[in-house]
Amino acid sequence: MTPPPSVFPALEPLLPRVAKPVQYVGGELNAQVKDWDTAAVRWALMYPDAYEVGLPNQGIQILYELLNERPDVLAERCYAVWPDLEALMRENGVPAFTVDAHRPLGAFDVIGVSFATELGYTNLLTALDLAGIPLHSADRGVDHPVVIAGGHAAFNPEPIADFIDVAVLGDGEEVVGEITDVVAAWKADGRPGGRRELLLRLAETDGCYVPGFYEVSYGADGAIASVEPTDPRVPARVMKRTTVDLDDWPYPKAPLVPLAETVHERASVEIFRGCTRGCRFCQAGMITRPVRERSLETIGKIVDSAVRNSGFDEVGLLSLSSADHSEIAEITKGLADAYEGTNTSLSLPSTRVDAFNIDLANEISRNGRRSGLTFAPEGGSERIRRVINKMVSEEDLIRTVSEAFGQGWRQVKLYFMCGLPTETDEDVVQIADMAHNVIRAGRAAAGHNDVRCTISIGGFVPKPHTPFQWAAQAHPTVIDERLRKLRAAVNANKLGRNVGMRYHDGEPSLIEGLLARGDRRVGRVIERVWREGGRFDGWSEHFSYARWVDAAAAELEPLGVSLDWFTTRERPREEILPWDHLDSGLDRDWLWEDWQDALSGREQDDCRWTPCFDCGVCPSTGADIQVGPSGTTLLPLTVVRGPGAGG
Amino acid sequence: MPRVRAGEAANPSLPTVARVRVQFAKRGRLRFLSHRDVARSVERALRRAAIPVSYSHGFSPHPRLTWSPAAPTGTASEAEYLEIGLTREVEPGELGRALDAALPEGLDVLAAAPADGVALADRIDAARWRIELPQVPVEALKAAVGALLAADEVLVERVTPKGRKHVDVRAALVHVEVSSGVVSGTPSGAPDCAILTAVVRQGSPVVRPDDVLGALDVVAGLRPPVPARATRLAQGLLDDRGELADPLGSDRVTTRA
């Protein structure tokens, strides 16, 4: 096969006519352009959102680097194009392209799409259409790429089952190599059995779910009656993949450094994966169990390599709850010592109030900027926090913020959710009291009145593979009304002047809920919305609630179901859920009991510090909780000496 | 002694002891970089190259870099200038080569020189631009340029975030030449295109290549069928003969072609 010509000469004349053209030119530091002909398997890794959001994505960067390390593999990247460029590309016949070598997307063997959120589904359709790839898996031939979905949303890929060929469940480090081997062998053998055989071989690969090989039937009540494999080679259940030892996969070592501005500009290292805090709303925490910590030594090596190779002045210590790493104090102190005097700051994007202390905060800000502190109590009342199992007490919060304000911080941000199961107006209105108490405590500790508290509220969306997968989602009108009452309560006190309130209206959350817990019938809604112009649904300026509501009515009601049926309806225990044949390792009975515990306000402890409560993950994934101390130390990091340094 | 608030580390920044100026180019697909994009890329390259840049003091330290007025997003340049504050002496040629090696291909450091007593801003008051107009006949461009030069004033409207502004392009034009040649970066044998070379005096607001093209549309209805490609060839102080004096002066050390 001759290398496909670069799309760039055709794209270049369009770039002066679009916003932020730099996002389409590639050229990032540490990007790789490999020889097309010598690669046995060619991957395009797509993040279906704008470049500025997609470029920093760690999942894509990890897979990009480790795939490109294989001499027989070529991997390039692709991001969603904004509607201004999409229109020009259609007008001028320019196909979807990768940013690395500007090769046409349709020429790759595999397109891997990472879905962090369900609101990226319409952007997948844009990319496939611009690439000249049939939207429906069933219409693709032997020369079309295999379209693979990954990321958290892939744990219920049923709404996009018609558009993808494969969904990969769980960690990607190992399975991308196995997929590569399957594709390489099939190509080398002369593509025996055509596309069907390739997909069957992928369906036999652990962690790979091929929706086209399952027949779904529905009962008279609209619920799923059965999900059956249609070929004996296809497993009845697909188990997620778990990378057991993260120290074996120290990526990314050479992070991509963009030319364009992006949402996160930092060298990131994932310090552990998984979380057993057990917050019942949190899909990420449920589907990434068990907790697997990276050792200090590996963290030190990754940070050293990433900072040296990037020039970033911020190091992000990522995980679902970074202050919970068993050696977080050693990590932050070690890094702050190593980067002393280099204007390199540390950030801990997710921290819990109860795991946080001010020494940690001081280490984080020692060499750089002291930005605001952010915590997520998630619920305004003690009662609702028991329901969601986010056991952060108001006393913990007040103590921590008092100390922070006393040490010179001026601003605290608090995140909450609205529309949680069993929630009443009173639970939400209590957020105002908490904010007022933060201001009072902050003023007392700071000795002046110049302290601020920002409360940020998002609509709760029940997600698959969580105890709340059976819950009824709150309707947007309920959420909007509660937020109005909250705003009035915030402003009812003079202290409200020091409280900022940010919230999203409830409508996009309801659509996210439809896409999160939908089944295959929801695919028709996605396609209709896309055909009517739906793009970038995660962006309020592009999202149209009316378009989704109308498309849902037109496509679902003839089938006897509806938008409400998928979202605001509580599911009974015996109902077959669309993702029941996809195994996150969590025991369904345990999830149901945890849901019942939620309804009666019973808490569940963290199994890192208390006995196992049999959620089912460890035995089914073959992994164990891995927490420190790891017995290792941060390597002595060295700062490079530059020109004129002498000796 | 500066007062340090409890919990705020005293800023460890070392003082600036030397300044080096560099001339760099913005080429090829990197012409789509905005000034902010260029600044971020250069700051990171300085860190990767471990050049001892001095930082401002205070709550949010930033590197001491002084930029000449940036070529607009989408235009290429052979003559952008940057002055770098240093915490120790570094030989300018060595600094230029180290920075060039750390920058992405397309942001290329061409020359370096020690800063003298005159501020960088006082060494630049005009720029020379080359604007390629593919598919525009040379004669049509000549006629349009003639009409532009014959006018006393040619106002072009520009939409800015603060509203609409009018710019007098004619007043800023010092010198204009029309020629023909090949679009840069295209294979030999490609059809010729009309080329406009213009020396533009820097006023406020700065007249950009787009404004010059807008003026040709205003006076002669000239509209290129495909987007024109502009490259800044030089910046400097305009002398009596219409030449631009090199902002790096006689101490200039070339670091790359």
TrEMBL record, chain A:
InterPro entries recorded for this chain?
CHP03960_rSAM, Elp3/MiaA/NifB-like_rSAM, Radical_SAM_N2, rSAM, rSAM_horseshoe, rSAM_sf
User: Which SUPFAM superfamilies does the entry mention?
Assistant: Radical SAM enzymes
Pfam families tied to this protein: Radical_SAM, Radical_SAM_N2
Alphabetical list of Gene3D superfamilies matching this protein: tm_1862 like domain (3.80.30.20)
The UniProt GO MF terms for this protein read: catalytic activity; iron-sulfur cluster binding
User: Which superkingdom is the protein from?
Assistant: Bacteria
Q: Which residues form the Radical SAM core domain?
A: 261-502
PANTHER family documented for this protein: RADICAL SAM DOMAIN PROTEIN, SLL1084 PROTEIN
Q: What is this protein called?
A: Radical SAM family uncharacterized protein
Q: Name its species.
A: Pseudonocardia thermophila
UniProtKB/TrEMBL annotation, chain B:
Database matches in InterPro entries: DUF2344
Specify the DUF2344 domain's residue ranges: 19-209
This chain's protein is named Radical SAM-linked protein
Protein's organism = Pseudonocardia thermophila
